[in-house]
């Protein structure tokens, strides 16, 4: 496994094809390991798996946890090596943004909904860094977790609208045995807060079970679970079509939730079949 930290080093690295990239902000956990394992499976033993580790300042708001965000490069590299990563790109802020960017990616109207209401500008920062990293790594495949479902949807739209020559591969959310979605921010939770956070998955699961009775029943079942844990403050609970447009008739849908557990903000989502 080779570690690179500059764009020049990255360009000089052997360009083995097919090539898959997994983009992260570090603090790797089993969810990231699943992305890397899927990347290795898809490119095969003769392909190349790239991991990027970069805490992107453009996607953090002024009151968010950029400085507090965990940076665990040594353990990240150990996980990467264990999962068969060939190349790690870990640039500094000055390397990726030598100048304050004056041109960024405009993510469109979906970025102003759901997460965008609570994190204005977030998705512009996400799409800008993803665009840069796709350009620099030139992969055939880029893998993203479904836990950040709105992010995944917007990346798909960007790649389609801008004719980027890469396949976006979604990977299902990885969960703890009790259902809590794996997240780098879970480490901020106290023992009590972690127990409280389980209500997010209980609410999503209750909604999914009510899918046979239609959208109103789905939302009612989820809200009933959430009301039992008032200490968890809900930012939104939404039922959308798979492309995050409005639900129209029966079929597949996606329920998304964001909530604050203590000082930690968590998101999750689940696929639902509406009858």
Automatic annotation (TrEMBL):
It comes from the Bacteria. One of its GO terms (biological process) is pantothenate biosynthetic process. It is found in: Cytoplasm. One of its GO terms (molecular function) is ATP binding. Signal peptide: none annotated. Pfam families: Pantoate_ligase. Gene3D superfamilies: HUPs, Pantoate-beta-alanine ligase, C-terminal domain. The active site is at residue 32. Beta-alanine binds at residue 59. Pathway: Cofactor biosynthesis; (R)-pantothenate biosynthesis; (R)-pantothenate from (R)-pantoate and beta-alanine: step 1/1. Its EC number is 6.3.2.1. It catalyses: (R)-pantoate + beta-alanine + ATP = (R)-pantothenate + AMP + diphosphate + H(+). The reaction proceeds by a bi uni uni bi ping pong mechanism. Belongs to the pantothenate synthetase family. Catalyzes the condensation of pantoate with beta-alanine in an ATP-dependent reaction via a pantoyl-adenylate intermediate. This is Pantothenate synthetase. It comes from Kribbella sindirgiensis.
